[in-house]
Amino acid sequence: MTVHRLTLNGLDYAVTDEGSGEPLLMFHGFPDSARLWRHQIPALVNAGYRVIAPDLRGFGASAKPAEESAYTLGSVLGDVTALLDHFGVSQVKLVSHDWGAALGWAFAAYMPERVERHIACSVGHLSALWHAGIAQRRLAWYMLLFMNRGVAEDILQRDNWQWFRDLFQHHPEMESWLQDLGRPGALTAALNWYRANVGVETWTREGWVLPRVKVPTLGVWSTGDAYLTETQMVSSAGYMDAPWDYCRLEGGSHWFMLDRPAAVSQIFIDYLGRDLS
pLDDT per residue over 136-164, tens digit each? Predict the structure, then answer.
């Protein structure tokens, strides 16, 4: 695929850019890169889209600042607007997953004029995620480990990354993840997304507060997700001031775009092309 090297807000970015049609922006999450979308990008290009998929800061071949504060959603949103401005794109359709979905929800909430519609994969509206109850908090136990700078890096890499392999259930994508995370500073950079955004010092009385969303949104959640409950996705409807749709995908793990690529590509194409008027 065509990968550009760009400088956005002083940081070096790797950005996949394929196709020549209507612009479609895709955000990956932890511990991925734009490679996450490798099955969907050709299908979406064939459906008439120009796909722009960055390796987000801290991941893949993009820059990995050392300081935790570089990974707040607000900081990364600045890179998103700079990316669209670089390509001369005023508004996009958006597909996002995991931390990329958290970023996507924030983008849609704070800059709705730049997002025509949004497909949020796995992660719901952040306020819905906060209020999803004890079942969700149990699944997110590993975040407490990730908060411990240095200790987490040591534990996750011990015995040829055994903890990491077990935590993410020996997914077939594992060796690709480990190749990326083995780059200098890469594991700490990836973990800094958690440290900058979900540490207890960032909590308010209301938890993670995000404005209501005025962008039409489809939430997609898979029954095999071991880290996120269905509740946090479906309850996102309560934080919408625009049309909300929900797709429950049977089978497939948290990384259902890799596990069920053809079905997921079709879900994306159907929603992105639907008349929402």
Answer: 999 999 999 999 999 999 999 999 999 99
Give the number of other CB atoms < 10 A from CB of residue 192. 24
Residues 6+ apart with CB under 8 A from 71: 57, 58, 65, 189, 192, 193, 195, 196, 197
Q: Quote the DSSP letter at residue 210.
A: -
pLDDT band at residue 1 using 50, 70 and 90 as cut-offs: confident
How far, in whole angstroms, is CA 58 from its chain's centroid? 13
pTM for the full model?
0.96
CB neighbours of 68 closer than 8 A, spacing ≥ 6? Answer: 149, 192, 195, 196
Q: Can you say whether residue 207 is alpha, beta or left, with left for phi > 0 and alpha for psi between -120 and 50 degrees?
A: left
How far apart are the C-alpha atoms of 274 and 247, rounded to whole Å?
14
Superfamily of domain 3-273: Alpha/Beta hydrolase fold, catalytic domain (3.40.50.1820)
